[in-house]
Write a structure and sequence with these properties.
By secondary structure, the chain is an alpha/beta fold. Helix content is 51%, strand content 14%. The chain contains 12 helices and 8 strands. An 8-stranded mixed β-sheet has the order 3-2-1-4-5-6-7-8, with helices on both faces. Strand 6 and strand 7 form a beta hairpin. Helix 7 packs across helix 12 and helix 8 crosses helix 9. It starts with 8 loop residues before the first strand and ends with a helix.
Amino acid sequence: MSGFSPTNVGVIGLGRMAQALLFPLLESGLVPASGVRAAVASAASAQRLSQLRPELAVSTDASAAWASAVVLLAVKPQQLEAVAAQAPAASTTEPPLLISVLAGVTLARLQRLFPGWRIVRAVPNTPALVRCGLTGLAWGEGVDGPQRSWVHGLFAQVGEVLELPEPQLDAFLALTSSGPAFVALVAEALADGAVAAGLPRLQAQHLAQRTLAGTAALLQQQNLHPGELKDMVSSPGGTTIAGIRCLEKAGLRSALIEAVLAAAERSRQLA
């Protein structure tokens, strides 16, 4: 990816998001499986992951993972303090690179907990699991150009990457990381409506998903403002405008705005 080519990568917490980032890295050959050291909380998780990817070294002992040139930190935010206490002091000659995907945890807090480390704060979202993700990146002090290129390339394997000022990451998280849950709720409600109108459940779910996917593709590929698309399908006195009237009466637009604002505020509180 760049002039920075680490031969070993440590992973602290190998959940679904960490797997979504790590497995493409292995498949691309950019880091050999022999150079990956992953640490998980329980022996049962280690055994399950070892069966899933036998080529990986997965352990409940994090010492080898912490000794890597790059460490992907993917634990729950509430576990951060305990996990950070296990981290070794950073080398002064070649500081290791820590990539955090912990929601809401700021660079300042990470730098305090990992003094001397070079820190990257990353905010990926769950569509990364199917390589349709969005990731926001903010850089800590000392992360140089080759390291930035390598990190950018890591997340580019699973979707689009944006570099943002850190204060914007809370809004980015609220829209892109919490947003899939909001969209899933809309998909579920649309399917429920179709079932109420007479469609079988599985067919209604499929059609709701395809409708959302097709709408997103149309908005993006034709560079349409959402209001344009809404007007395109809202005939005078027709079915769509009748439905939109119900949504406006129910306050759907305001509810979604408030949901994004609430998620952003919660992200700030987690800092």
